[in-house]
Design goal:
It is built from five helices and five strands, in the order ααβαααββββ. By secondary structure, the chain is α+β, with helices and mostly antiparallel strands. A hairpin with a 2-residue loop joins strand 4 and strand 5.
């Protein structure tokens, strides 16, 4: 048996932590999602280029996008797509496979989803002033 003490700064694997308190992943999924199969985890990514561009748009547009991101992470993408105020719609032509949401009458956020299994990644591609 080693006499070394574990480094308190080193990360503890979550499965070890759960086992030590008597909880399994299935139990945790049941508590969080209501089903033992688990739920889909959604991660919204805003690339550095888009973050830099966001400083050029009005503050209320940034706040609206931030609210949309929080809603997607908390409620799920499918649930947020049902909110009529965002006018979430698939794009066509060169942007096929991407979707857009309205942040107000002038600004749109364009995003793309990808992922496997229980993890989905939503990547914001750009926030632009929509030309009519």
């Amino acid at each position: 048996m080693s006499s070394e003490k574990p480094d308190p700064q080193s990360p503890v694997p979550i499965d070890f932590t759960l086992k030590s308190i008597g909880i399994s992943f299935a139990d945790l999924s049941q508590d969080l999602c209501g089903s033992p199969e688990g739920c889909t985890m959604i991660l919204v990514v805003v690339p550095n280029r888009v973050q830099k561009d966001l400083f050029k748009v009005p503050r209320h547009i940034r706040l609206r996008l931030s609210g949309w991101i929080r809603s997607v992470e908390l409620r799920g993408l499918e649930e947020v797509r049902r909110i009529q105020g965002y006018h979430d719609e698939p794009l066509k032509g060169l942007r096929a496979g991407q979707r857009s949401i309205r942040l107000n009458r002038s600004y749109r956020a364009i995003y793309e989803t990808r992922g496997q299994g229980d993890i989905k990644i939503v990547e914001i591609k750009e926030v632009t002033k929509h030309g009519y």
